[in-house]
Amino acid sequence: MASIVQSLSVPSAYKDQQYQGNSSQLAQDLANSTTLYVGNLSFYTTEEQIYELFSKCGEIKRIIMGLDRNQKTPCGFCFVEYYHHADALDCMKYINSSKLDERIVRSDLDHGYREGRQFGRGRSGGQVRDEYRQEFDAGRGGWGHVRARQEAEREREQKANYEAITTIPEGANQDYKDQQEGNEKQEICSLSSSLGQWGLYVFGSPSLWV
After folding, report:
1. Contacts of 203 (CB under 8 A, 6+ apart)
2. DSSP3 helix / strand / coil % (the chain, rounded to 5)
3. Which one, of 78, 54, 49, lies nearest residue 65 by Cα?
4. Among positive and negative, which fits the CA dihedral 166, 170, 174, 176?
5. Distance (Å, rounded) from C-alpha 179 to C-alpha 164?
C-alpha cells in the first residue's frame, strides 16, 4: 500500500565527495550499511554521551569521533557503527533530530567508515561548515574560522589606533588639581548661600544666624 508520508529511515540525498563509486554502488552500500554519520555535535560532547544515547537503538560496535585535522580535538561530528543494519535504521527513526548537549543532532546512513574520514576537511582543520560560519556558536568554538580571523584583526587595529594612556602629560596633573580646587570652592559658596537663605527664613533676619 502506498504512503504519502516518507519513511524516517530513508537516507538523505547527500553524497560524500570523496566516495569512489557510482550512484548505484552508493545505493547498494547504503542498503547494507551499519554506519551512521552524526553531525551538529558540540565540540564538548564526549564519546560516552554519544554511546549512552545511540545505544538505545542497538548494540554499538564502535564510535569514531571526528577530529580537527591539525589540533586532533573533537570538531563536531562522529561515526556510529552498529552490528546490524536494522539498528542503524532504527536510530534514524528515533534518534535523528533529537537533542544531545542542548543541540539538535543529525544522523544519516553512511556508506562506511574509512581511515582518514575522521578528520575535518576545512582549511583550518575543522569542518567546512565552521570555516565560513558567521554566527557565534559557543558549542562549536565561538566564531567561524574566517570570522574569528576578522575579529582578531579588528582587535589588533583597535589596540594600534586607540592605545590606552599610560603616562600623564606634563602639566596635566596640576591642571586637574586646580580644577578640583575650583570645584570645591564653588560648592562651598553654593552651600553658604543656601544656609544664609535658610537662616533668613527661620529667624527672620540673616543677622540672627549663628
Report:
1. 209
2. 45, 15, 40
3. 78
4. negative
5. 23
More confident residue, 153 or 169: 153
Percent of all residues in the chain with a pLDDT value above 90, rounded to a whole number = 45
Distance, CA of 41 to CA of 98 (rounded, Å):
11
Residue of higher predicted confidence among 206 and 160? 160
Decide: 33 and 110 in contact? Cβ < 8 Å.
Answer: yes
| Residues whose CB is less than 8 angstroms from the CB of residue 101 and which lie 6 or more positions away in sequence, other chains included | 41, 42, 44, 45, 49, 139
Task: Work out the pLDDT band at 143, boundaries 50, 70, 90.
Answer: confident
Give this prediction's pTM.
0.67
Bridge partners, 13 (sequence order): none
